[in-house]
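Ticket #148: bound-state structure for DQA.
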Amino acid sequence: MSQSILILNGPNLNLLGTRQPEVYGTTTLSDIEAICMRKADALGVSMSFMQSNHEGALVDALHDAKGTHDGVVLNAGAYTHTSVAIRDAISATMLPVIELHLSNIHAREEFRHHSHIAAVVVGQICGFGAQGYPLAMDALITHLGEDK
Ligand code: DQA
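RESOLUTION: The complex was predicted; output attached.
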């Protein structure tokens, strides 16, 4: 059976395209979904794509991913820097998660340098814009292969 991955996006990422284009570029979230679908086809995996502005909905999505998906690419947006609940959900499900950010969070404001989730994910990809999504998918699929 082919592998299945969840691409999970947090708050304000629904506004990509018009949101601070100097930081996040002009690619919309639906453009990114199309990029991810093409990448999933190329990798021969199935993929679900979702976005929520609500912390609890992201926690629920991580819980639901257990048993449904083999791993997750997570752009938790601002919750990266604030959410113990999302960190705990990653630890609780024990699913492999790749942390992703469009921008290089380490080159931005001090409060973005700390990620609550970094310690419980497989690894972090940031600073490559929309291109980071297929990079993260590659990283996740390679990791899942190594895990077998
Ligand atoms: C982000 C970086 C976060 O600091 C920010 O709050 C976001 C987007 C990124 O993709 O670069 O909403 O996760």
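RESOLUTION NOTES: The pocket of DQA is lined by residues 12, 75, 77-78, 80, 101-103, 105, 112 (CB under 6 Å).
TICKET STATUS: resolved
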